[in-house]
Specification:
60s Ribosomal Protein L30, Chain: A, deaminase activity, RutC-like_sf
Length: 128
Amino acid sequence: MSKAIIHTDAAPAAVGPYSQAVSAPAGKLVFLSGQIGLEPGTGELVSENFEGQVRQSFANMQAVIEAAGGTLNDIVKLTLFLTDLSKFASANAIMAEIIPQPYPARSTLGVASLPKGAQFEVEAVLAL
């Protein structure tokens, strides 16, 4: 099976041994690594504000999707990670603003912590 590595400077560089996204085989499926609310230019969290981090995470995800040749409509599965599940309704409302209907499948997980002290992370699978 062949795979292609997807990278864009419009989203933060990987902060570990992983790629922003990988497509396989031959561009049919694209697996995006998780995106947190980092500003692409600085690599720092956009703010301490949860909603700001959620919006930046989705913006970073969209930049990687576009680098892979896709759109938000190509998402078939999202996974959301929150360090505080009491903020789920806020993340859900922002997602509903950004992701077009019909919505993709989704899982939401509560986690103890995320890289760089982030409060939110999103990852996606695309079908192109």
